[in-house]
Amino acid sequence: MRGAAVRLGGADVLSGIDLRVAAGERVALIGPSGAGKTTLLKLLNGTVAATRGRVRALGCEYGRSSARRTRAARHRIGTVHQHFDLVPQLRVVHNVNAGRLGAWPLWKAALSLVRPFEARAAQAALERVGIGDKLRERTGDLSGGEQQRVAIARVLVQRPRVVLADEPIASLDPARAREVVDLLFAVSAEAGTALVASLHDLDVALGRFDRVVGLRAGRVVVDAPPREVGDAEVARLFRTGGSP
């Protein structure tokens, strides 16, 4: 990502973003609310287009590569959304299998709604996240924590090269937060998968991740290993008023 900017509703949400994430790297995005963290994740998975600059992911340059190549790249990027993006009326197996839709032809995706394909893979993913008994449950009947695990299981079956997580531990108690971070790190450990997660918890960001990228007012103001992010850098990120 070089010189990337996003303008929405007449305002710059991101400006001049230069960012490179290596295979297997674990990057924490931090910054105050409204800093642009979610938009940056959307730039990385191609669901938001850059107004200026260039964004390249897994060999695909968004907006310049073919539609086929773009779809292939996006299928290799798994996203854990802040609000999960599950279909509550469907059984858990269908929501987990949504992680495979990019690899299936249309007929298989449609038929799987009647008789789920690859149910064993979905079951294995659910067992990894600790809810192996929920395969046939209606997703809307699960607790919030269980639905979050379904969202992570969906990423597991996708077998991504990059995992993006938008506030995956927001509103969780410390024990549950550690479990979720451990799950995401386990996914990242497979095949050198990169992990980029937006976080409000500074202790987790500074204590667990390889690198910290701090956003303020749509600009990167910190990009360093956690050991180099001290009180001055945190104060610069979260101070009230003023410009970046």
Automatic annotation (TrEMBL):
Organism: Saccharothrix syringae (Nocardiopsis syringae)
GO molecular function terms listed in the Swiss-Prot or TrEMBL record: ATP binding; ATP hydrolysis activity
Gene3D superfamilies recorded: P-loop containing nucleotide triphosphate hydrolases
Family matches, as SMART domains: AAA (SM00382)
PROSITE patterns xrefs: ABC_TRANSPORTER_1, ABC_TRANSPORTER_2
Keyword list, A-Z: ATP-binding, Cell membrane, Membrane, Nucleotide-binding, Translocase, Transport
Keyword Cell membrane (UniProt): yes
Protein name listed in UniProt: ATP-binding cassette domain-containing protein
Pfam family, one: ABC_tran
Record-linked InterPro entries: AAA+_ATPase, ABC_transporter-like_ATP-bd, ABC_transporter-like_CS, MetN_ABC_transporter-like, P-loop_NTPase
Domain ABC transporter: 1-242
Keyword Metal-binding belongs to the record: no
